[in-house]
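FAQ: What does the model actually see?

It sees only this:
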Amino acid sequence: MNLFTDSPHRSRQVLLLLLTLCLGLLTAAPAARAAPRPPGPAGPSDPVRELARQAVPLTDPRPLGRMTAAADIVGLGEATHNSHEFFATKQRVFQYLVEQRGFTTFALEVSWSSGLRVNDYVRYGRGDPERIVREEFQGSYTVWDTQEYLDLIRWMRGYNLRHHTQVQFMGDDMGYAGPVLFDRVTAYTARHYPKLLPEIDRLYRQSRPTAGVGDTMMSYLRRPMAERRQMAADTARAYALLSAQSRGADAEEFDWVVQHARTIAQTGRQFGYDFDDPEQLRASRGYRDRVMAENTLWWQRHTGHRMLLSAHNGHVGYEPTGNGEYPKMQGAFLREAIGSRYVNIGFTFGQGSFNAFDLNDPAEPIRTFSVPPLGAGSNEEVLERVSPRDYYLDLRSASRPARAWLGVTRPTRSIGNAWPADVEQTSLGASFDILIHLHRVRAADRL
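And it is asked to produce this:
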């Protein structure tokens, strides 16, 4: 179905804005390349033997459990947004962390309200999971509309049916605020602060969605800037009014409602940026990563859960990415907030295929693309020779020669939700604590 019904030029422009707003890592088509970062210290020209000494076959999860033993939040990246092996590996890692390490939340780079709807199924069996995935993972979140994520959600529900300790699903993003959030906030306000309800209803009037996820996000982008900024101001005002109220007898319910109002305000503020202004576009990217970190931290602190945080490599990492277009990443915010209780895992791969939005043909937005080995001078060229099997490495405990090599900035594949895109310049050692390398990947199974 063609969601982009304007002229071809305008359709591509709106698609770029939508992709920038959510899952927006590396969505710009190749343009003038930013100046590369200065290289790190010179490393050995061929550190394969050093790395091979520490490589652990991916089939053995126990060392990975020890590597993440002190973490409350484990960030697990992906080098493309839509390859089967990344998703399947995440499910295996999460299952191990749940069954052997006491983890209880899977957090995904999807909207807070969509996460609540998925969680209602995972915890209580409400709704049909395939319908939920289809309806909630739309717009730029379409990259999650896959059999692999449906399998994960069904596994989580099955686990809860067999165990007293329940696993949960949360979304940390704010590209869309669904009706469930508005309904929960206004219903709570009507019960506890009825005099405040008319003002809350007024402030939410322009932001309450009347269509599905994708259509709502597109309609917001098409509104005049003045209207979008008013939406941002109104939703921020509603959040301020609610958070200023007394907590009452049920502090738990109040805290959740205020968080729902906060995420509505986050969505309003994000759409209040002028994405045609390069400085505001860059600021919006930094704001988004900060918000995703804040929502993840709120959930962890409020529930006490140990969490697996699933996002793109760039978002779970420590170093600014997007060739300078992303000023600070979610992983850096998390490390700053909780120190070593946040541990991240990056992915690299040799070659293979993935699904992505086609920037050259907005009329047929998602296609399958394939890429060959990256070649000489890249991080992957060396990593491909470390072991014939898929493996992982604890970069923090690498030998001194290996750390010297890992500290150098080199071309590294980091493919977001759109193609074509520039190759990233990445220092693996500065970006990640642990690295998983896969030799081949294939495109995920779309629903």
